[in-house]
Amino acid sequence: MTHKIGRGQFAEVYYARDRASDDATLNACAIKIESAPRTCAREAKVMRALHGKKHFCKLLSESSHEGKPYIAMELVGETVAEARSRRANGRLSLATASALAIAMIEALETLHNEGYVHRDIKPGNVCVGVGDGAEREVYLIDFGLARKFVDDDGNAIPERKDATFRGTTTYASVYAHEGKEQSARDDLFSTLYVIAEAIEGVLPWKAEGATLSKPEIAEMKRACLSAPSRLFTTMECPEAVDSFARIIRTLKYGEKPNYAALKAPFERALVDGGPQPLDWEIPAPASAPVVVPVTSNSPVPMEEGTDGGRYRWRKVPIEGTPTGAVVAGASYAAVAANDASAGTKRQRDEPPRAEAAMVDDRHPATPPPPPAPTGGKSLVLLAHTSPKLVPARIADIVLDVAHNSSWEENLAIASGLLSYVVGNTVNGVRDFPSEGVRASVLELKDICFRCVGDIEKYRRESREGPGVGPMPRRDFAGREGPGPGPMPRRDFAGGGAQHARRGPGGNGKQRRQY
């Protein structure tokens, strides 16, 4: 293995090749390694069923090393999210979007015919081929959330009454939001959102830096069911997208779609437009900066300042570079100083809305102003007392970090973020108002004192017994109650994220509920 090329909620993906081969392009592969046994076995099972089929990577190996499961698979190229990040306003041409739609529909037809529903269709899980002439190939990846929706006889498995949300909030179907079982129609709705976003540049529930809650996003998606044109705010809805949307809205759970009819509008669009290269086949102009994902693990710059060096994580412009731009070959130090972020795989899944000079739509070149308090409480307090009420974007980021870091790393990240905000405040950086930051820091101070009290009480009761009763525990839905066992992880599921709720398992361990 030579370097990391991706990261997910529970796994990291590395580039690897056979050391015995002199040709780096031959025998190269991608290796996905999980931190603990979670979804690798399920993903390998799906990949075995799809082995050798068009639009899917070949499974090369499946095993474990030092207790960590891994799968080795065929190496493919960049994701659609990365391809879009190099385009003006994150938009693809209608011809490229139509070709992408056809390939995705073909891939889903194959997957669904094998009895599986993907449940996490998004730009970051669709890749193009790598190598000469392979850029026109499209691959569907990441089957960690895939699930059987038909039995061995091809009949739809009965719906569960309350299926847990699975997927990514931005691209999940309305039915997934409603806690309904997912089937072929749900993957197709996610495809609709991917294609509409590729053409328009942004989905309406992500426009202008919107930080909507999961229910608010679901409501906007319901409005788009009867009026697909609502998906487009700066241009007319293409006829192919409108036709596709009107077909899939008639589908019921478990119903087999007419895939030929779904592809037909996009095939007509390709014919009408004439032969054209795909957008990612067109070289970027030499004078324009190329936005690239950052993969280096170099440390963040630690610059001294007027604060005496205590607050060293701060926004520093890179000379000669447009604000927020990441030029090809830039070091991680330069990127970090410019307030760009490599982020996790999910954070890179949603490319820029307004400018090409942006790494992803969660980290604009200029930080957005602090959101207004929600329900009388600031976001700082909500994140501690009512995680389900925080905006989906924040919930996703918190869970990405929390599930992939140790307790010490989590607290170090929190400390670093606090230092970053205060450092910019004391240096007079715009959009870091001293009064608002001071009030929020005081709230954090109170939260820390309460947390220390909770820990001390737990330690005391562990030594001396429960006394008057076990310590009440928040379930983060506004309820409290006693209960033995370890303190549960916070449930940010209400904020809209691709994270399973967790419940107590045997021996005090946590187990996923599917």
What does this structure look like?
With 514 residues, the chain is an alpha+beta fold. Among the domains are: 3-74, Phosphorylase Kinase, domain 1, CATH 3.30.200.20; 80-281, Orthogonal Bundle (Transferase(Phosphotransferase), domain 1), CATH 1.10.510.10. Helix content is 34%, strand content 10%. The protein has helices spanning 40-50, 80-85, 94-113, 174-177, 184-200, 214-226, 239-248, 259-273, 332-337, 345-348, 379-385, 392-403, 407-426, 434-464; strands at residues 3-7, 11-17, 28-34, 59-65, 68-74, 116-117, 126-128, 138-140, 147-148, 473-474, 480-481, 502-504, 510-512. Strands 1-2-3-5-4 form a five-stranded antiparallel sheet, covered by helices on one side. Strand 4 (59-65) and strand 5 form a beta hairpin.
Using the coordinates above, name the CATH class of the domain at 80-281. Mainly Alpha
Helix content: 25-40%
The CATH topology of the domain at 80-281 corresponds to Transferase(Phosphotransferase), domain 1
Biggest sheet details: 5 strands, antiparallel
**Overall strand count:** 13
- Distance from N terminus to C terminus (CA atoms, Å) equals 32 Å
General form: globular
Could you name the CATH homologous superfamily of the domain at 80-281? Transferase(Phosphotransferase) domain 1
pLDDT below 50 for ≥5 consecutive residues: which ranges?
286-373, 473-514
Q: What's the rounded overall pLDDT mean?
A: 75
Compressed to H and E, one letter per element, the order equals EEEHEEHHEEEEHHHHHHHHHHHEEEE
CATH architecture of the domain at 80-281: Orthogonal Bundle
Strand content range: 5-15%
Sheet with most strands: strand arrangement: 1-2-3-5-4
- Taking all Cα atoms into account, the compactness measure Rg is 24 Å
Q: Number of helix segments?
A: 14
Q: Helices and strands: which structural class?
A: alpha+beta
